[in-house]
Design brief:
Helix 2 (21-45) runs antiparallel to helix 3, helix 2 runs antiparallel to helix 6 (138-149) and helix 3 packs antiparallel against helix 4. The protein has one domain (19-179). By secondary structure, it is an all-alpha fold. The protein is globular and about 45 Å long. Helices cover 72% and strands 0% of the residues. The chain has helices at residues 2-10, 21-45, 61-82, 85-115, 129-136, 138-149, 158-183.
Length: 185
Protein backbone atom coordinates (compact mmCIF):
# COMPACT_ATOMS: atom_id res chain seq x y z
CA UNK A 1 0.00 0.00 0.00
CA UNK A 2 2.80 2.45 0.87
CA UNK A 3 4.56 1.74 -2.42
CA UNK A 4 1.36 2.48 -4.36
CA UNK A 5 0.86 5.86 -2.67
CA UNK A 6 4.53 6.77 -3.22
CA UNK A 7 4.35 6.02 -6.95
CA UNK A 8 1.05 7.88 -7.17
CA UNK A 9 2.66 10.85 -5.45
CA UNK A 10 5.55 10.82 -7.97
CA UNK A 11 3.20 10.70 -10.97
CA UNK A 12 1.68 13.98 -12.02
CA UNK A 13 -2.02 13.20 -12.62
CA UNK A 14 -2.83 15.58 -15.47
CA UNK A 15 0.34 15.62 -17.55
CA UNK A 16 1.59 13.74 -20.58
CA UNK A 17 4.96 12.76 -19.13
CA UNK A 18 4.72 9.74 -16.90
CA UNK A 19 7.68 10.06 -14.57
CA UNK A 20 9.23 12.18 -13.09
CA UNK A 21 6.76 14.64 -14.54
CA UNK A 22 5.80 16.22 -11.25
CA UNK A 23 9.40 17.13 -10.52
CA UNK A 24 10.02 18.29 -14.09
CA UNK A 25 6.83 20.35 -13.99
CA UNK A 26 7.72 21.91 -10.63
CA UNK A 27 11.24 22.79 -11.82
CA UNK A 28 9.91 24.17 -15.11
CA UNK A 29 7.41 26.40 -13.34
CA UNK A 30 9.98 27.51 -10.78
CA UNK A 31 12.55 28.30 -13.50
CA UNK A 32 9.92 30.19 -15.46
CA UNK A 33 8.83 32.27 -12.48
CA UNK A 34 12.46 33.13 -11.69
CA UNK A 35 13.05 34.19 -15.31
CA UNK A 36 9.85 36.25 -15.43
CA UNK A 37 10.65 37.90 -12.09
CA UNK A 38 14.11 38.82 -13.41
CA UNK A 39 12.45 40.46 -16.42
CA UNK A 40 10.18 42.55 -14.19
CA UNK A 41 13.18 43.41 -12.01
CA UNK A 42 14.98 44.67 -15.12
CA UNK A 43 12.08 46.99 -15.97
CA UNK A 44 12.25 48.54 -12.52
CA UNK A 45 16.04 48.53 -12.08
CA UNK A 46 16.74 50.14 -15.48
CA UNK A 47 13.89 52.62 -15.99
CA UNK A 48 13.23 54.41 -19.27
CA UNK A 49 10.71 57.06 -20.28
CA UNK A 50 8.20 54.21 -20.62
CA UNK A 51 8.13 53.78 -16.83
CA UNK A 52 6.50 57.20 -16.44
CA UNK A 53 4.15 56.97 -19.43
CA UNK A 54 0.46 56.08 -19.22
CA UNK A 55 0.03 52.32 -19.02
CA UNK A 56 3.64 51.80 -17.89
CA UNK A 57 5.16 48.84 -19.77
CA UNK A 58 1.71 47.19 -19.89
CA UNK A 59 1.12 49.05 -23.14
CA UNK A 60 3.43 46.56 -24.89
CA UNK A 61 2.36 43.10 -25.97
CA UNK A 62 5.65 41.65 -24.69
CA UNK A 63 4.87 42.68 -21.10
CA UNK A 64 1.22 41.61 -21.33
CA UNK A 65 2.45 38.24 -22.58
CA UNK A 66 4.92 38.13 -19.71
CA UNK A 67 2.05 38.79 -17.27
CA UNK A 68 0.02 35.92 -18.74
CA UNK A 69 3.09 33.67 -18.62
CA UNK A 70 3.66 34.61 -14.98
CA UNK A 71 0.04 33.86 -14.07
CA UNK A 72 0.16 30.56 -15.96
CA UNK A 73 3.32 29.43 -14.21
CA UNK A 74 2.17 30.67 -10.79
CA UNK A 75 -0.98 28.55 -11.07
CA UNK A 76 1.17 25.70 -12.39
CA UNK A 77 3.59 25.86 -9.47
CA UNK A 78 0.84 25.95 -6.86
CA UNK A 79 -0.91 23.08 -8.69
CA UNK A 80 2.34 21.08 -8.68
CA UNK A 81 2.64 21.55 -4.95
CA UNK A 82 -1.01 20.94 -4.02
CA UNK A 83 -2.03 18.53 -6.84
CA UNK A 84 -5.29 20.48 -7.10
CA UNK A 85 -7.26 19.51 -10.24
CA UNK A 86 -8.94 22.94 -10.23
CA UNK A 87 -5.58 24.75 -10.26
CA UNK A 88 -4.32 22.46 -13.04
CA UNK A 89 -7.44 23.29 -15.05
CA UNK A 90 -6.84 27.04 -14.57
CA UNK A 91 -3.16 26.65 -15.51
CA UNK A 92 -4.08 24.66 -18.61
CA UNK A 93 -6.70 27.22 -19.69
CA UNK A 94 -4.22 30.07 -19.19
CA UNK A 95 -1.62 28.08 -21.08
CA UNK A 96 -3.89 27.88 -24.13
CA UNK A 97 -3.89 31.70 -24.20
CA UNK A 98 -0.35 32.51 -23.12
CA UNK A 99 1.72 29.93 -25.04
CA UNK A 100 0.50 30.85 -28.56
CA UNK A 101 0.72 34.55 -27.66
CA UNK A 102 4.32 34.22 -26.48
CA UNK A 103 5.31 32.21 -29.56
CA UNK A 104 3.80 34.95 -31.73
CA UNK A 105 5.63 37.63 -29.75
CA UNK A 106 8.95 35.80 -30.16
CA UNK A 107 8.52 35.25 -33.89
CA UNK A 108 7.50 38.86 -34.52
CA UNK A 109 10.18 40.34 -32.28
CA UNK A 110 13.15 38.30 -33.49
CA UNK A 111 11.98 38.61 -37.09
CA UNK A 112 11.88 42.41 -36.82
CA UNK A 113 15.20 42.51 -34.94
CA UNK A 114 16.79 40.51 -37.77
CA UNK A 115 15.70 43.28 -40.16
CA UNK A 116 16.37 46.33 -37.97
CA UNK A 117 16.46 46.45 -34.16
CA UNK A 118 15.14 50.02 -34.13
CA UNK A 119 11.83 48.76 -35.53
CA UNK A 120 11.01 47.42 -32.06
CA UNK A 121 13.41 49.14 -29.63
CA UNK A 122 14.18 52.86 -29.91
CA UNK A 123 17.91 53.59 -30.11
CA UNK A 124 17.84 55.55 -26.83
CA UNK A 125 16.84 52.38 -24.95
CA UNK A 126 19.60 49.88 -24.25
CA UNK A 127 18.48 46.32 -23.62
CA UNK A 128 21.25 43.87 -22.76
CA UNK A 129 21.20 40.45 -24.42
CA UNK A 130 20.18 38.53 -21.27
CA UNK A 131 17.23 40.83 -20.66
CA UNK A 132 16.33 40.56 -24.34
CA UNK A 133 16.31 36.76 -24.11
CA UNK A 134 14.36 36.96 -20.85
CA UNK A 135 11.64 39.11 -22.42
CA UNK A 136 11.48 37.70 -25.92
CA UNK A 137 12.61 34.05 -25.82
CA UNK A 138 12.31 32.43 -22.39
CA UNK A 139 8.53 32.83 -22.00
CA UNK A 140 7.97 31.30 -25.44
CA UNK A 141 10.37 28.40 -24.85
CA UNK A 142 9.12 27.58 -21.36
CA UNK A 143 5.42 27.93 -22.18
CA UNK A 144 5.79 25.80 -25.31
CA UNK A 145 7.55 23.08 -23.30
CA UNK A 146 4.87 23.27 -20.62
CA UNK A 147 2.00 23.15 -23.11
CA UNK A 148 3.39 20.42 -25.37
CA UNK A 149 5.07 18.13 -22.84
CA UNK A 150 3.62 18.77 -19.40
CA UNK A 151 -0.06 19.50 -20.08
CA UNK A 152 -2.97 17.27 -21.03
CA UNK A 153 -4.13 17.23 -24.65
CA UNK A 154 -5.69 20.46 -25.85
CA UNK A 155 -9.37 20.77 -25.11
CA UNK A 156 -10.18 23.71 -27.37
CA UNK A 157 -11.66 23.32 -30.85
CA UNK A 158 -10.85 25.49 -33.88
CA UNK A 159 -13.79 27.89 -33.69
CA UNK A 160 -13.43 28.75 -29.98
CA UNK A 161 -9.66 29.12 -30.50
CA UNK A 162 -10.23 31.61 -33.31
CA UNK A 163 -12.82 33.42 -31.20
CA UNK A 164 -10.43 33.63 -28.26
CA UNK A 165 -7.64 34.94 -30.51
CA UNK A 166 -9.99 37.53 -32.00
CA UNK A 167 -11.15 38.74 -28.58
CA UNK A 168 -7.55 39.00 -27.34
CA UNK A 169 -6.43 40.85 -30.48
CA UNK A 170 -9.25 43.41 -30.38
CA UNK A 171 -8.83 43.88 -26.62
CA UNK A 172 -5.14 44.64 -27.09
CA UNK A 173 -5.91 46.97 -29.99
CA UNK A 174 -8.36 48.91 -27.80
CA UNK A 175 -5.80 49.09 -24.99
CA UNK A 176 -3.06 50.37 -27.33
CA UNK A 177 -5.39 53.03 -28.72
CA UNK A 178 -6.31 54.07 -25.17
CA UNK A 179 -2.62 54.37 -24.21
CA UNK A 180 -1.91 56.31 -27.42
CA UNK A 181 -4.66 58.78 -26.56
CA UNK A 182 -2.78 59.59 -23.34
CA UNK A 183 0.85 59.25 -24.48
CA UNK A 184 0.70 60.29 -28.11
CA UNK A 185 3.43 57.73 -28.87
Amino acid sequence: MAKSSVSQFARHPLQRLQSPSRTVSLLTHLLGLCSFAASYWYLIKFPTYINSSYGWHWQYLTIIGLLLATLTFAFGLVADITLSPRLFAIKNALSLCSAPLEVLISILYWGLVAIDRELVIPKEIHLNIWADIGFHAMPSILLSWDLLALSPPWTIANLPAMGLSTVLAFSYWGWVEHCFSHNGL
